[in-house]
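Form 7-S
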Amino acid sequence: MENKRNTYIISKALKSFVLASILTAAAAQLASTFDAIIVAHFVGEEAVSALSLVMPVTTFISCLGLLMAFGANALAAREIGSHNLEGASDFFSTAVWSILTIGVAFSMLMYAGIPVIMEIITDEESLRTLPTDYLSVYVLGAWLEMLSYAFCLFVATDGHPRKVTMAVFAGVLVNAFVDLLAVGFLDWGIKGAAWGSLAQFAVNILLLTLYIRQPICSYSLKWPKRKNIQFFLENIKEGAAVSISNILMAVTVLLLCNIIFNALGERGLFFWSVCLQMLLISVVFINGIIESLFAIGGILLGEHDTRGLDLLARRALLAVFVLMIPMIVLMCVPGVVGVMFGIKNDNEMADLNHVLRIYSLALLPFALTLITVATYQMLERILLCVCVVVGQLSVTILVVGALAYYAPAYIWWGFPLAGFSFLAVQLLYSYIYSHRQKCRVSALTLIPYSEGGRRFDSSVRYRSDEVYSVLNDIDAFLQESKLSEHDIFCLNLCCEELMTNIAKHSHGHIVHHSFDVHIYTDDESTCVALKDGGKPFNPLLADKMADPDIGKEGSEHLGLRLVNTIVENISYKYMYGLNIVLIKI
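Output:
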């Protein structure tokens, strides 16, 4: 049975998470861009180029953090969605202990290997001094970046992205203070920027630890056990696609640095460094949406809600399209970006403006491809993820490299040309694959319209007549299932009490707003998920909110207290601005 499902609840969750995630990522990127601006003014343009040269190394560090935390976070989200907080804690603990062992070991190893790393990064001896100074500080605290990233992911996925935003903003302020003090006043040069970044990560960890220790947190840190090895392997498998993507991105940046330097010299390398900083700012928006996809999408997968996942992915694609427009406009406004990076020469400013206008066209296809890759990974289409990422970056290198060799004056046009060409091929593949599957998967996102079992989906407006109409539909759906009469009676009663409570007491009763009902049943179990955007209200606490004397004022919660009595596996969570009640039989 299929009922109409609108996008209100999904959109509300996405907006709630994306806004906080973008602010968080924007703050983190602001710190990176502020580093570049500070060293540009106090050290010189060569310091900005140095930050671009070390980007492959810092990206590799991020990849290690991704490998040990991103997959674990996605798996933990599914455990929360399926009402298994013990499993969520297992994945969280595995990620933390992995970083504190493997992450620290890699930090020490990279510090010892800095001379070798610099030989790989560039053949020019004159370009190695400043990057070496930066890395000599940064890599020692690389594990702090990994742990900070892990804490940000897990706390945001647990329904508190705003706490992450506040922690990261506090870290950014500390980073800015340390940058100004170390670079501007103590004259530590580019090393001061590295110390500022490490201070930022330490502050993030400290503040987020305060939340993780609270009882409302879904995770608890457990001592390592033998089974953590199995969880670690699952983490690696789940996070491999994103990590490979970032490693390849780092390699691509390194190759493009050399291609552009050989074709256009140091001036071209500086222009590419500015373009790269603008790309990183764009990635702020992209990563905010991707993190939202994995957090909210993981919970939807745990609930077997593929319809909700498809709605989420489509809204994410629309959101990234809208968010890229301001970035493109910013890069096309003459002089704005150039002033940020200390350009004072009019001719150099005009040349940079020309480069930025061309390069800005590549942002949109780049962003759309990354969102679809994130969707593929949630569906565990790992091989497809790797193929798309490798294809996109390979086409970019080939096109830009060819123009650098045959027509250096048009080298910047290689970025939008490669981006749009590959996106067209990717969309064509999705369309053909969907039709070969007889349209059982989305032609845009490849999300299956069903995953076995049977499901009931409906968005219900805050009106009694509509609530009872949907309750009749739910009863008809359950009667066609393999559930016992007792289970059908219990689920009908639970749905009636919970849904009428939402309709009467939620503050979300604007005419076009609604709450969602999702039921999934197969041979093993039946899951019910109710989500509304009203004020926080925990129906599991009905006993505490009412007088024990049923005959007096406590009678208003009698139905909810009855629900808590007849159903054992029921949970509540306030996440992403939503009340979420899960029932499992």
